[in-house]
Structures are given as structure tokens and as C-alpha cells.
Amino acid sequence: MNKTIAALVIALLVVTQVFASTIVVSQPGTTDQEKLSRHISFLYNQTVRLENFINSHVANETKKQELLGEISNVKNILDQAKNTLAAGDLNQTRELIRQASSELRAIALQLTKEIRERAQERKQRFIEAEIRALTNQVAALSRVAEKFKSLGADVSNVTSLLTSASNLLSQAQTSLKNNDTAKALQLLAQAREQIKQAEKSIRDLATQLRARQVQKDLEHFVNATQRIYERLEKFAPNIAQMFKNWSDTRIKEVQSLISQGKNVEALLKLRQSFFEMNHVVAGLMELGRVDTTLREAENIAKVIRTCNATLASQIDSKVQEIRVAMNNKDLQKVHELMGELRQLIAQSRFACRPARKK
């Protein structure tokens, strides 16, 4: 049902009861005259909305003219209510408002058939659109299944699910033609579930087909890691070796899965390894920068030891703490200690300056 019209009808059906219960009790700071004026405005707005609905949705011309005549009568009553309110006759105004409310309620009740028909039309259009969309989806999935079949995949389960979904959609179309929208909606839900299962089956088949190419993917991973290793080795041999240790471990894990016939698991491991590779390289590069800083700090300690042995010892001690944290792979600790080391290095700039003469 059109939500706006539904709300209008409900409002009109209860307006008499609401009016009766609220017109006696004044809100704090609100006079009876102001309250009556608001009621008149509310009823006039509902009258216009009903008039628009009648013009748009009542097909029977005789009925339409009769209802529009009744609407005109309600407007006249509300105009009278405005006049009596302006004249200060509150009792007569209340009576006219009750009369207008009753007339509007009677008009709304006469529109029940049109409102239901409108709601039915909207529901039918929705179902027709759903049937078209799902039919197109079945056709698209069928094309994918045919492609997978040509690649050697067993698509019997997918084909069965799509055939079932297609039959359900045909039944839904028949039910819709018979105006049985409830049955059509039920069949649509069943077809949607069959399509959902077919999509999952196709995803599984895609993974299986992809897994058949896992050996080629492994070769690609080996080549990629080798290129990275060669570049790292030119300027950071230690980092290059650490990276090689990591990549060799991953390659062995994938090879082991392939040898066991676990191609899907091997494919997933390769995907994870490709994802991790960038993070590993970034982490190793960061460790490389740390290692460079540590060597620089050790050289600084040697230089300043003759003039500030205490600070030199503090720097050496901090360097050793960082190396221990690196060996333990405690990156958070490394980060904290590096901050402390940088502060010591900053102090070393003034370690050997002669004291100012007083």
C-alpha cells in the first residue's frame, strides 16, 4: 500500500476519536481558539490529500464525481468553521469540526477498494521486476557454468540448482498471472535460495580450477622472491639473507602441500604469502635502518669515550639492549629503545665541547 495514502486513511479513521479526546484538554500555554484553529488546518490538509488521491486513483467517473462533491462539501464545512472561530463561537466551531471529521472518515472508507488495488499493483510490479532480475542472474550463472565445463570442471551440481531455480521462477510467473502474489513471493524466495547455492558452488569450482595452476603460481612466487633477494643483496646483505630465509620457508610449505595433493590449501598459502611479502620487505627494510643506526651509535661511542665515558657507556648499553630485542623479534621494544638511543645520540653532540669559562 502507498505509505502516504495508508497513513492518511488511518489518520482519518481515528481523527474523530482523537478530536473528541483532545479538544477538551488544552495544552499548557495554548488557548482553545488556537487549538481549534490547528484542528481546522489539519483537516483541511487531509481533505486536499484525499482529493488528490481521488483524482489520481478512482477510475469510475461516477464514483469520482460523487466523492469530489463530498470533498467540496467538507471544504465548505471547514470554511464555516473558520468563520465561526473568527466570530468567537467556539461551541459551533467544535460542532462543525466534528461534522467535517465524520464526513472525511466516510469518504476514506469508500476508498478502501482503490487503496487495496493500488497496493496490489505495486506488489505485482515488484514481483515482475524480481522475476526478471533473477532470470537474468540464472542466465549469467549458466554461461559461467558452461565456461567452467569447457575447462574440465564438474558443473552438474550448478546445473541442477540453476534448473531448479528456473522452474521456480516459471511457477512464480504463473502464480502472478493468477493474481496469487503470496504464492509468487514464496516461490521467489525458494528460487533465490537455489541461486545463492549455485553461486557458492561456482565459487568453489573457480577455486578448484585455479588450484590446478598452483604450480605455475609457485614458480611466479619463487621468481618474485628471487628478484627481491637480488636487489636487497646489493645494498643490504644481512636483510637479503633474512628475506631469503622467510621466502624459502614459505616455498617449502607450499611444495609440501602440493606433494600431498592439497592444491586448494597450497593456493591459499601462496595468496597469503604474496600478501605477506610486501609487509616482510617493509619490516626488513626498517630493521636495516635500525642496524645502520646502531653501527653509527657504536662509532659515536668510540669517538666520545675519551671525553665522556659515561655517555659512551650508556650508548653502548642501549645498542646491546636493542640488539637483544631484535633477536627476540620484539619490534615494539625495538621502537621504544630506538627513541631512547636517539636522545643519547643527540646528547653526544655536546659531549666533547670544552666547558665555557666563567
Description of the structure:
With 358 residues, the protein is mainly alpha-helical. The longest helix is centred in the C-terminal third of the chain and has 42 residues, at 263-304. The chain has helices at residues 3-22, 32-57, 61-86, 90-110, 112-150, 156-177, 181-211, 214-235, 237-259, 263-304, 309-327, 331-348. The N and C termini lie far apart (95 Å). Helix 2 runs antiparallel to helix 3, helix 5 runs antiparallel to helix 6 and helix 8 (214-235) runs antiparallel to helix 9.
Tell me the number of strands. Answer: 0
Biggest sheet: strands, sense, closure?
Answer: none
Structural class: mainly alpha
Instruction: Enumerate how many helices there are, as a single number.
Output: 12
Helix and strand element order: HHHHHHHHHHHH
Global geometry: elongated
Percent range of helical residues: over 70%
Radius of gyration: 41 Å
Low-confidence stretches: 10-27
Terminal CA distance: 95 Å
Mean pLDDT: 84
Instruction: Provide the β-strand percentage band.
Output: under 5%
In short:
This protein is mainly α.
What features would you highlight for this structure?
358 residues, mainly alpha, 12 helices, elongated
Write the layout of secondary structure elements.
Layout: H1 3-22, H2 32-57, H3 61-86, H4 90-110, H5 112-150, H6 156-177, H7 181-211, H8 214-235, H9 237-259, H10 263-304, H11 309-327, H12 331-348
